[in-house]
Amino acid sequence: MLNRITYLKTSCLIYIILAYVITVVPIAQLFPQHNFNADSMLKNDLLNPSTKYVDSLIANLGLLESDSQRLETLLAISGEMVSENADKCIQYGLECLSLAEKLGDYQAQEEVSSWLGISFDDKGEYSNAIKMYSRSLEIVEEMIKSEATSDLYLHAEKAILLNNIGYAYFNFAKYEEALKYYFQALQIANEKSPESKATILGSISELYYAVGDFDKASHYAHFSLLHSKEVFDLAVGCRMMGDIFESRNMPDSSLYYYNRSFEYAKTERDNYLVGMSVEGLVKYHLARGNYDQVLNVAKYGLAVAEQLNGKVHIITSNLALAKAYQKLGKREEAFKHAEEALALCIDSDVTSALPDCYEVMETIYLQDKDFKNALIYHKKTQLAKENIFNTEKLRYLAEAESLNELRLKENENQLLKETQAKNEAQLRQKSALNIAALLLIALAISVLYFLYRSNLVKKRYNRLLEHEVEKRTAELTNSNIELERFSHIVSHDLKEPLRNIVSFSSLAMRRLKNHDDPDLKEYMDFIKNSALHLNKLIKDVREFTDIKRHLPKQKPVDLNDLLQRVIETLSFKINEKGATVTATSVLPVINSHHSLLFVLYKNIIENGLKYNESQNPNVTVDHSEDEENHIFRIKDNGIGIPVTHKEAVFEMFKRLHTQNKYNGTGMGLSISKKIAEKLGGNIVVTETSEMGTTFQINIPKGSAAVLA
User: Fold this and answer.
1) How far apart are the first and last CA of the chain?
2) Residue 606 has what pLDDT?
3) CA-CA distances (angstroms) from residue 606 to 46, 386, 545, 558, 611?
4) For 357-376, what is the HEC assignment?
5) Most buried among 212, 301, 380, 671, by the most CB within 10 A?
6) What is the rounded distance in angstroms from the CA atom of residue 280 to the CA atom of residue 262?
7) What's the rounded mean pLDDT across residues 240-262?
8) DSSP assignment of 377-394, as one string?
């Protein structure tokens, strides 16, 4: 009894400490951060312990006379060099494959073909990688056919090989082919190899991230981590989560996952994983403008990639160095690394990195004021992007995904039919026993017969009703999928020509810099500002539709912290206007949705600052509650809203002033209204005059209970 009490006390203490850490310590501090020193890290981290072992195997290779002994040694060398040194793996792997064919050893052929595929993939030779993966896949399929009982290991190997073929197509920028193989692999994993799911889900997440569908990327990355048990899958899943949080401008969370990915990669001592995780850290520091740190991290990543001879990571490391040197004003170093990255892209199959290479070259020439070359590379950038991203490819992705969902649905239906048949057989057996037992009582037989007939009619009716519901649900689902695809494609296709308008307007304005023609400059300014305004409008419409479709998971939200983050986000506008944003009292912690509340608060406060001509602009936030709702009031001392427009201001694109006087898209308040409704509440204008406006937000307690 005493030991149990002691155990309970200790457990409670641990939980209290964990709760304190989770609520008080920022998430990025829960995992170690890295101040890279390239030289020291190269010395400590790239001394692979397998090197001496491999050298000894190579030294003994010439002394072996037996083919079987040579095959075993070559297989060991190739296996050790996978993800460590692609050139050595290919050199000894091809010799191993030839000897395995001579000896008729299919198991060795399958293993070494798979390893060769990985190494060709690392070198950016994706055509050769696909050939080797396909060869290994053929052998595995033959083994599965020849097995008297199905071997789960072989099914897992088949799923991973299909995933690897898909990944090679992904690196080839053939996304529709990649998705087809990913879904084939996922179907096998769902049916016979659940341990393979994490790897495949991580690959699908990376593909959707590459085409800009961050919602689906987040969905698959989340489930990849849930299924992850191996260090490889954990490193990849954390890297993808880091990218997703980075795309949502959540730096604490992105840095946390990038650091986790790097720690997992180091424990595995896998050069491919290390290079991949370093790319995430480079992306984080580039976004923050930490260019000295980018140089350190990217140099380390480049050294690891060169040891592996991994073309993709060599290219991305050189691009990162080029961007950092360019920002630091070191033009020669920037040009050198950009040229090296571009040359590797052109000489290999790594076409997916071409747009980034051309864009860096364009930026360097723009900085040199060499507009002729800048225009050449700008056109190359656009052409490369069009080859990778186009409406037709996105349509193929949508079709591939729909086919996969249909296939999974058919599997579920087949399983349901089998279960139903089994249940019906059991029901018939029980019915026969009951009828035999009740034959002695005629009245009971009549009653049972009546009930049986009624039940049949009811079942028939239920089946008809279920069929109709399924039909309507399928039609609605397909309609929603098509609408989502249309929204994504339209927003993507509109942004590219807008970027061209802005870029060429800027180029034209630079050319006009020495020409004294104020009217022409005014026209060019008008074109550029109109394009930027349309781009903001597209972004706002996309955000409006996303809010309408998605609702994140509820979690505790400290409104004091949230308000402080909003103030930090709007700090430039607040300082520019000499404004103040304060809370009149301590705000509560509620169980709600952080991201939606952040956008809601930001839009209303930003509205109070924008439409404000006061000498001392001021926005205040307070909280109260009644029996059913939490009530938040955001009050400003701005120009006010005419009473006749109190409801109209929440309509999409509704503007009460011209674009020249107050810029904007007319979407901010409509987005705020949609968020409030999504949370089960509403937003209204309660007070308005020339002295300011008060917005009141009501959120039901049932959907946002106060925690503190």
Assistant:
1) 35
2) 86
3) 50, 37, 21, 20, 9
4) HHHHHHHHHHHCCCHHHHHH
5) 301
6) 9
7) 88
8) HHHHHHHHHHHHS-HHHH
Instruction: Classify the C-alpha dihedral 289-292-295-297 as positive or negative.
Output: negative
Cα(347)–Cα(336) distance, rounded to whole angstroms? 17
Residue linked to tokens 């927003």: 491
pLDDT of residue 338: 87
- Compute CA 454 distance to the chain's CA centroid, rounded to the nearest angstrom: 53
Percent of the chain exceeding pLDDT 90 equals 6
| Nearest in space to 265 (alpha carbons), one of 254, 276, 257, 273 | 273
> pLDDT value at position 619?
92
Comparing CA positions, the residue from 402, 388, 329 lying closest to residue 356 is 388
Q: How confident is the model at residue 424 (pLDDT cuts 50, 70, 90)?
A: low
List, in sequence order, every beta strand (DSSP E) within 573-657.
Answer: 580-583, 589-592, 618-625, 629-636
* Single pTM value for the model: 0.53
Q: What's the pLDDT band for 20 if we cut at 50, 70, 90? A: very low
Do residues 119 and 126 lie in contact, with contact meaning Cβ atoms separated by under 8 Å?
no
Question: How many Cα atoms are found within 13 Å in the side-chain-facing hemisphere of 191?
Answer: 18
- DSSP secondary structure string, 648-659? GGGSTT--SS-T
Cα-based angle 331, 337, 341 (whole degrees, multiple of 5): 140
- What's the one-letter identity of residue 245? F
How far apart are alpha carbons 89 and 525 in whole angstroms?
57
Provide the pLDDT for residue 491. 55
Tokens 């060499």 locate to 370
Distance between CA atoms of residues 117 and 97, nearest Å: 12
* Mean per-residue pLDDT, 620-632: 88
Rounded CA-CA distance 222/369 in Å is 45
What is the spatial distance between Cα 626 and Cα 706, in angstroms, rounded to a whole number? 12
Distance between CA atoms of residues 429 and 525, nearest Å: 83
Please tell me the distance from the alpha carbon of residue 547 to that of residue 667, in angstroms, as a whole number: 13
Picking from 384, 353, 324, 306, the residue whose alpha carbon sits closest to that of residue 126 is: 353
Helix then strand then coil, % of the chain, to nearest 5: 75, 5, 20
Kindly state the helix (H) or strand (E) to which residue 695 belongs, with its residue range.
strand 692-700
Q: Taking Cα atoms as reference points, which of 427, 417, 300 lies closest to residue 34?
A: 300
Write down how long the chain is.
Answer: 708
DSSP for residue 681:
-
Any bridge partners for residue 624, and if so which?
A: 631
In this structure, how many other beta carbons lie within 10 angstroms of the beta carbon of residue 684?
14
Three-state secondary structure readout of 458-510: HHHHHHHHHHHHHHHHHHHHHHHHHHHHHHHHHHHHHHHHHHHHHHHHHHHHH
Distance CA 224, CA 184 (A): 17
Structure tokens at 145: 């056919």
* 3-class SS of residue 590: strand
Q: How far apart are CA 577 and CA 564, in angstroms?
A: 18
What mean pLDDT do residues 206-230 have?
85
In this predicted structure, what is the pLDDT of residue 493? 56
Instruction: Report the candidate in 280, 278, 316 with the shortest Cα–Cα distance to residue 300.
Output: 278
CB proximity list for 371: less than 8 A, separation 6 or greater: 365, 507, 510, 511
- Specify the range with the lowest mean pLDDT, choosing from 47-61, 88-102, 312-326, 383-397: 383-397
pLDDT for 464:
67
